[in-house]
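Re: NAP structure - here you go.
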Amino acid sequence: MSVTLMNGKFIASIIKEDIKIEVEELKRKGINPCLAVILVGDNKASEKYVSLKEKTCKELGIKSLIFNFSNETGEEDIVNLIEELNRNDSINGILIQLPLPKHINQHTILQKIDPFKDVDGFTPYCLGRLLMDNPLFIPCTPKGIIRMLNIYEIEIERKSAVVIGRSIIVGKPLSLLLLRKNATVTLCHSKTNRLEDITKKADILCVAIGKPNFITAEMVKEGAVVIDIGVNITDDGKVVGDVEFEKVKEKVSYITPVPGGVGPMTIAMLMENTLYATKIQKGLI
Ligand code: NAP
């Protein structure tokens, strides 16, 4: 069976080109989209993700403001900044880079973001609206995955979709989006019994665990669509996903590579959400 590698990098580049044009049009009207990013602590991966977001904003003409807090910062300082950014009309999107240091309660912080500036879609308001089939901002990684499935014209309706991982960043919202597309969804996690029996029946298998090469060819149905969300760094510094790519790709119809699959789509969706937030706030939609 011939496999199609889903080229997230290429699709993301086209989406970003369109965003860039829209940003230029807004700027001609005197509107300057701006994303505020809050980074707490010195997590190296988080620092890398933030600098990637900063770089992409620059490429597309979106202003970005990075607010760095030390590891020792308390919740109050972060909440004060969020409230200030909420009030500031020149800020269109607010993003808290996750994970936060252990002593900070993620829920306390996230719920302070004005939902209309919540470009990551992680506030209780945005997640609640997604649950109620009336989304405002959809979390970027799941949104990017659905966009990729649509672009490759992969049928979702009536398919058996299995999602492994139940985080609010990926697994839970992705399950809801697949359900909205009329898939029959099974959401698995670390306490799932006989995982292999479930994955083998998946027409669409989405894996967001964070364990290198966890999904082997034996666990996958012939001809399935495999979406690998995991990002893992091996001992020799290579970036790999959660799926044993070389062997699984021999068996499936579509697969996302890591890197170059889901990751670039996530950033493109963040830019799209920032543009959308700007347009809502300026009364353009
Ligand atoms: P997370 O919050 O750590 O969640 C991991 C999930 O995997 C949990 O629900 C956990 O189950 C489940 N899990 C762990 N071991 C398992 C096992 N042996 N069998 C079945 N389920 C298992 O992770 P996350 O934030 O969702 O991220 C997951 C991965 O995606 C990471 O590698 C991350 O770097 C990557 N990621 C990539 C992007 C991108 O744009 N490409 C974006 C976000 C995240 P329990 O709930 O039972 O503990």
